[in-house]
Amino acid sequence: MSLSFRNVAKAALVAGALALMCPVAEAGYTAVKEPKRKVGVSHERIIERVYGGNFVSDPTGLSFSNESGITVTRLQDGPAGDAALSGKVVSARAVAAFSGRRKTAGYFGIRSGGDVQTLLAPAGRQFDVTGAGRSATPADGEFVLVKGAGKAPRTFSSVASSNRDRMDHLVTYKVKGTAQQASVYLMCWEDKFAGRTDRDYNDLVVELQVGEAAAREAMSQPLLIPLPPGAWTGLAGLLSVGLLLWTRRRTLHRFLGVA
Prior knowledge:
- The structure is a single chain.
- The chain folds into two domains: 27-218, no CATH class; 231-259.
- The model is unreliable at 11-24 and 213-227 (pLDDT under 50).
- The N and C termini lie far apart (122 Å).
- Helix content is 26%, strand content 28%.
- It has helices at residues 3-21, 43-51, 79-82, 213-219, 229-256, and strands at 56-57, 63-65, 71-74, 88-96, 106-112, 115-120, 123-125, 128-130, 132-134, 142-147, 154-157, 170-176, 183-189, 204-212.
- The protein is of the alpha+beta class and 259 residues long.
- The longest helix has 28 residues, at 229-256.
């Protein structure tokens, strides 16, 4: 075997190994890498911790399901996926944070009417995290993660073109089969800019419950069902008969001297 052939064969083996290690990027979906750190946790493990059961991915790696019938499916990244959350009132809770060893100050919010509205300020690490909130107004479709405190916090947007590195910092899943009445989504954030990022998208994971603003407002009002004219006529007749019987009973009691 010649030296050049050996070099070609060795290069092919290395390329094949790298291809297996790197995630496959489906069209319209940002590639998510497996965590490198020991404390890092994959999306599959996070989903199992949040919803319970043993989840198995489909061949594309974009959808997971468990034995209870819960499915967790990736939304397309970009405008197609953002449209599903635009114009909605949302409730949010932090469910996981694997952003390293330090507890970093920051907040998660939505852009509504051009302004950023804070939904929650996550605290804690790994699965021991807290933070929950609800939007007062519908979202414009853009979500924001702000990390760090002081004069120069790092701001990451769900809209890739709004980020200074033009990188997609959010992947989103739609969750079906839970007991929740509202639509449920799982948002997985990457909180480092290109060049430093590990692209595992587990730095902050937030569960959203999403509903139509108009529907929620209607649910807070009492339900009034108008009666047809015929029903009012019948009701008036019953009241008249009842009043007549009560009057005759009172007259008889007075005649007999009964109180």
